[in-house]
glutathione-specific gamma-glutamylcyclotransferase
Amino acid sequence: MRTAVSADTLAANRRLARFDGHAEVWVFGYGSLIYKADFPYLERRPARIHGWTRRFWQGSHDHRGTPQAPGRVVTLVRERGAVCVGMAYRVTPDVFDHLDYREKNGYLRFVTELCFEDGGGAEGLVYIATTDNAAFLGPAPEHEIARHIAASEGPSGPNRDYLLHLAAALRELGADDPHVFAIERHLRALDEGVAAG
Ligand code: SIN
C-alpha cells in the first residue's frame, strides 16, 4: 500500500489552511467528534455531507490502540451518491490547535460543503484519514472488524466504547448507518457468545 501520508499528520495540518482571515469556521464531525466535543464551540448543528461514506478502516495508534496493536476508528471513503450524517460545529480558528492534535493520527483537513439538517448549508472543514496514510488499515469483513475492536484498547480507553458511543450518537441523530450498526451487532453478539445474523 502507498503510504505517502505519515501516521502523524499534526505538522501537515498546521501548515495547511490559514483560514483566510475568517473569524469563525465550520467543522464537520462524523466519528468521535459527534459524541465527544471536548472543545469550545459557538454553535452545533446536525449536518450531512455528500459523496462520502463512514468506514471503520483507519488504524488508531494513539486513542483506541497503540502503534504495536492499533485499534480501529472511522474515516471517510469516497462513494458516489453516499450521504454521511454527522455534527457540524461553528468554532473560532484557535480551536484547530486542539483538533489538529486530537486528529493527528493520519487525518488531514479538507474543505467540504455541509448541508444542515434543518436547512441551508455552509462551507466547512472535515478531518479525513486518506487511504495513503501510514496508519490506514483498510477494509475487512464487519464481523472481523468487531473482533478487532473487542480486543483493542488505547490511551483514550477501550475501542468498543468508541464504537458504542458512535452508534448511540448516530441513532440519536436519526442516521441510518448499516456499516456501523452491523459492527455494533457483531460486537454485542460476541459479548453474548453467539454469532450475529
Ligand atoms: C471525526 O470524528 O470527524 C473524525 C474521526 C474521529 O475522530 O473519530
User: Anything to note?
Assistant: The radius of gyration is 16 Å. The chain has six helices and seven strands.
